[in-house]
Amino acid sequence: MQISNAYSEAAQSASYRASPRHDAGPAENASATRSAPPVDVTTGKADKTSASNAIFQKYDLTNISPRDVDAMAKELRDSGFDDVGFILGLETRGEKWRSHMMQSLNDAGYEFDPSYDPTARTDVIAGLKEQVQTSQRFGDPTEFLSEQLSKMERLNAQAHPQTATSGPSPEMAQTLMLFQAQRIWVE
């Protein structure tokens, strides 16, 4: 759990550091540049939005393999998608990050299931919801994870409306129940 939270905090700070600073010189901002996004032929301007929307339509975060997560993150980065924190958070669900973490922990003496399949499809959004709930139970910070979850749900629902959750989330229902119980107890 602490490893995931440390990575989440690193993603937050990387998102800040990766954005070009107005007070930085050209040499410092050059490190934050990436490949040029596709150009809209009608306007001649960079078309980051349609490129990233096409990528989100290509991949369904409720049914995606870790290998596809890495491919999606690379495509988002190449398209000029500018939410670096989102991409880094997404990469924590990918094959490269998981393989690296498994190897690091194996080197430290921890054993993991050798039958890990990077092509097995999973629900990334459900996994992130579970991580948020676990972090809440242990009193760990959840701001970045909750923001990441919200972005994933919103972007995936826009590209794949059939995956959108309907009605209040379980967290919202729990909050409302606790609020009502507190109100009754106070009265």
From TrEMBL:
Residues 1-16 have a biased composition (Polar residues). Residues 1-47 are annotated as: Disordered. This is Uncharacterized protein.
